[in-house]
From TrEMBL:
Coiled coil start-end: none
Protein name: Chorismate-utilising enzyme C-terminal domain-containing protein
Record InterPro entries: ADC_synthase, Anth_synth_I-like, Chorismate_C
UniProt GO molecular function: 4-amino-4-deoxychorismate synthase activity
Region (Disordered): 62-81
GO BP, one annotated term: L-tryptophan biosynthetic process
Span of domain Chorismate-utilising enzyme C-terminal: 86-247
Pfam families attached to this UniProt entry: Chorismate_bind
UniProt feature, compositional bias: Pro residues: 66-76
């Protein structure tokens, strides 16, 4: 088989540098505005940090003074389409199982694409996503005519002062708001050998990946799998940490 055809109007990767930001501290319940001062000669190409802070404050003040928007018109959408049939999807699942049994692969991320056309604005869709699937890691990213909406409970990578943390998730059960039923779901997740085995496999893979860029002996499995509560689900989450090796950067 040849390489997978990339037919999504997005780059494989992209980087944006935001030199001014409004930051909300959830613990202190306070907003902050912050900006970066650039070294010469980059400073000559950008407004000063003070002027960018002032501009950001003015924009926030203007937004706060605007009246709340009225109810949007009823949205229209086309039927949802999928890029493969149910039978084709199951055939791919069975093929992946055969590869795993043969030892050719350890895991596969098999996904489907669901498509529709709608006149709902990206921001409105994002607000609905946050309401229906609240999470600790979410993003609204306008990108050259395409907007990425994301809501995920999983921390992929965190790098601070040379210290790397990754927190993979394997294993999910619903959280319905009923104490008795939620306790059953939590016990099921905690006792599942399948979910534990999947997470152990991912922990080994990530230990190996971090070992390529971290100092020798610095990799630690802080947690092999804790059950965490999220607004709508229970997850089994591991935590792996390490210290970045010399001359290694976030990129």
């Amino acid at each position: 088989a040849g390489p997978t055809r990339w037919d999504v109007p997005l780059p494989l990767a992209g980087f944006r540098l935001y030199d001014a930001a409004a930051v909300y501290d959830h613990q202190a319940e306070q907003w902050y505005v912050t900006a970066v001062d650039w070294p010469v000669p980059l400073a000559r190409r950008r407004p000063s940090a003070a002027s960018r802070l002032a501009g950001l404050r003015d924009r926030l003040a203007s937004a706060a003074a605007m009246p709340p928007p009225g109810p949007p018109p009823a949205p229209t959408s086309s039927p949802v389409r999928v890029n493969m049939s149910k039978d084709a999807y199951f055939a791919k699942v069975n093929r992946a199982k055969r590869y795993i049994e043969a030892g050719d692969i350890y895991q596969v991320n098999l996904t489907q694409r669901f498509m529709t056309r709608t006149d709902v604005s990206p921001l409105m869709l994002y607000r609905r996503l946050r309401r229906s699937s609240p999470s600790s890691h979410a993003a609204f990213l306008p990108w050259d005519g395409v907007t990425v909406l994301s809501s995920s409970p999983e921390l992929f990578l965190d790098l601070r002062d040379g210290h790397v943390v990754t927190r993979p998730i394997k294993g999910t059960r619903p959280r319905v708001g009923d104490a008795h039923q939620d306790a059953i779901h939590r016990r099921q997740l905690n006792k599942s050998d399948k979910e534990r085995a999947e997470l152990n496999m991912i922990v080994d893979l990530l230990r190996n990946d971090l070992g390529r860029v971290c100092k020798l002996g610095s990799i630690q499995v802080v947690s092999a799998g804790d059950i965490e509560e999220h607004p709508t689900v229970f997850h089994r989450v591991a935590t792996i940490e390490g210290d970045l090796a010399a001359r290694r950067t976030w990129l």
